């Protein structure tokens, strides 16, 4: 099952959403230091994720230093937080508090996909969270050719049809070398 989340404007994390996120945060204190306010940093991450194409330097001053928030984001990624959060979101029933911030999570996962590369894209595709993809699924690599092969069987009558199907499979497996910015920004 695949779902495309309805875009919602950014709002600060509610107490309910924070209570749902907090148990899944990893212990991120480097060298014994505590993160001063992880809720405010997650708010900053979600706020920036809602702005298409925004860089860390574009973060509003009230959210803290951009390099600090970016470092927190990377630590969350390397601790597997975004992977866990996407898996929880995919299993969450409609009334679950994580579903209230699904669009924010998907937008942040798009940014995490820059760090996670193909393994994270594969997870997102497998979970069916299309809003977390940076482009339409058919433009991204598809290393699971078994699914594609099922859609395009190789039992053609002519060698030319078979070659066209093989070329389509190779294109689907590799994805597009370059995804136009207009498609990336307009997708979901």
Let me know the average pLDDT: 82
Number of strands: 0
Kindly name the structural category.
Answer: mainly alpha
Order of helix and strand elements from N to C terminus? HHHHHHHHH
State the share of residues found in helices, binned by percent: 40-55%
Strand residue content: under 5%
Number of contiguous helices: 9
Low-confidence stretches: none
Tell me the radius of gyration: 19 Å
Q: Tell me about the biggest sheet?
A: none
Pfam family, one: DUF4096
Protein name: Transposase
InterPro entries: IS402-like_dom, Transposase_6_like
Domain Insertion element IS402-like: 13-85
Protein topology:
Blueprint: H1 15-21, H2 38-49, H3 66-78, H4 81-91, H5 97-100, H6 102-127, H7 145-151, H8 159-174, H9 181-186
Helix pairs in contact: 2-3, 2-6, 4-6
Jot down its keywords.
single chain, 188 residues, mainly alpha, 2 domains, 9 helices, 54% helix, elongated, IS402-like_dom, Transposase_6_like, Transposase
């Amino acid at each position: 099952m695949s779902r495309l989340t309805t875009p919602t404007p950014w709002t600060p994390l509610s107490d309910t959403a924070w209570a749902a996120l907090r148990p899944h945060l990893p212990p991120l204190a480097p060298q014994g230091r505590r993160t001063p306010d992880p809720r405010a940093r997650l708010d900053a991450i979600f706020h920036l994720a809602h702005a298409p194409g925004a860089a860390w330097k574009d973060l509003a001053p009230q959210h803290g230093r951009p390099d600090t928030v970016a470092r927190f984001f990377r630590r969350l990624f390397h601790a597997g937080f975004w992977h866990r959060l996407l898996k929880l979101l995919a299993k969450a029933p409609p009334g679950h508090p994580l579903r209230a911030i699904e669009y924010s999570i998907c937008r942040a996962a798009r940014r995490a996909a820059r760090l996670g590369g193909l393994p994270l894209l594969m997870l997102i595709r497998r979970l069916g969270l299309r809003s977390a993809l940076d482009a339409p699924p058919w433009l991204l690599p598809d290393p699971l050719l078994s699914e594609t092969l099922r859609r395009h069987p190789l039992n053609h009558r002519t060698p030319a049809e078979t070659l066209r199907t093989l070329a389509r499979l190779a294109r689907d497996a590799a994805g597009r070398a370059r995804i136009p910015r207009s498609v990336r920004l307009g997708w979901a």
